[in-house]
Amino acid sequence: MISKEDFTKLHLEISPYTHRTPVLTSDLLNKLAKTEIYFKCENFQKMGAFKMRGATAAILALSKKERAKGVVTHSSGNFAQAVSLSAKNLGIPAYIVMPSSAPQVKKDAVKTYGGQITECEPNIKARETAAEKIQKETGATFLHPSNDLNVIYGQGTGAKELLEDFPDLDIIITPVGGGGLIAGTALAVDFYTKKCKTIGAEPFEVDDAYRSLKTGKIETNSSTNTIADGLKTQLGDKNFPIIQKFVSEIIRVEEEEIINAMKLIWERMKIVVEPSSAVAFAAILREKEKFRNKKVGIIISGGNVDLSNLPF
């Protein structure tokens, strides 16, 4: 496990390649939720999501020899964009496996950032097979979107910044998909605070992380019928132990609650957030008593939205 000193050093190393994103508040949303909310806006991060942090950290951790051969990943959107842009910034090739069902807006963004796309069937087995083939042919290093320790550490730097700006937070809440963001956030909370808790939020339709904490083993989902397309993946063996140790609980929300929370953020804060980002705010609205009169940080995970397919 990384030390606090190395975590701080990693944050400094990725800083030239990432934005220090703003923290926004809304009096109206605070009154509605009956709490104080501090939105860490990773929708304003380079390429539009927190994953820029983890992708940059993972590539910087490679040797010169490894970097020369490039990197490969599989992703439906945000990590694909993050790896493509990070690789471009560092002057190395990026090979991206994307499911055919990925939003066209995300495919277009990957191409803009210089990523070389290979499309596959929309299932995890097809993704992994295609990525392994590219790895063998090119010698590129595989980067997992969420189950890679350097990726996890990078993702946690957003929470570190939030805690530097607001050190008296009681809770930080993040959406949970593959587990990289919440694991990194939980590490940052453990390193830089004494009283703050880390809580996760996920849809009922893909509640594998909630069930995994209950059973003590990594659970899977039989279906992925959720609007929160970034949360359809599952936990991994690198991030799950961190989540078990440092995450207090995971709150589940309904699809209509996600849409309502997303709409409120768009209307009241005038910022673009994707459905996955709205899950954390939806959890606060669902469990108002749990958060009443607390100071709560939310990691707004991203703002890459297909504007032709909004839920409202």
TrEMBL record:
Q: Which InterPro entries does the protein's record reference?
A: TrpB-like_PALP, TrpB-like_PALP_sf
Signal peptide residue numbers: none
- GO annotation, biological process: D-serine biosynthetic process
Q: What are the UniProt keywords, alphabetically?
A: Lyase, Pyridoxal phosphate
Which named protein is this? Threonine dehydratase
Single Gene Ontology MF annotation: threonine racemase activity
Tell me its cofactors.
pyridoxal 5'-phosphate
Record's family? Belongs to the serine/threonine dehydratase family.
Give the source's domain of life in one word.
Bacteria
Q: Which organism is it from?
A: Salegentibacter agarivorans
Q: Where is the Tryptophan synthase beta chain-like PALP domain?
A: 15-302
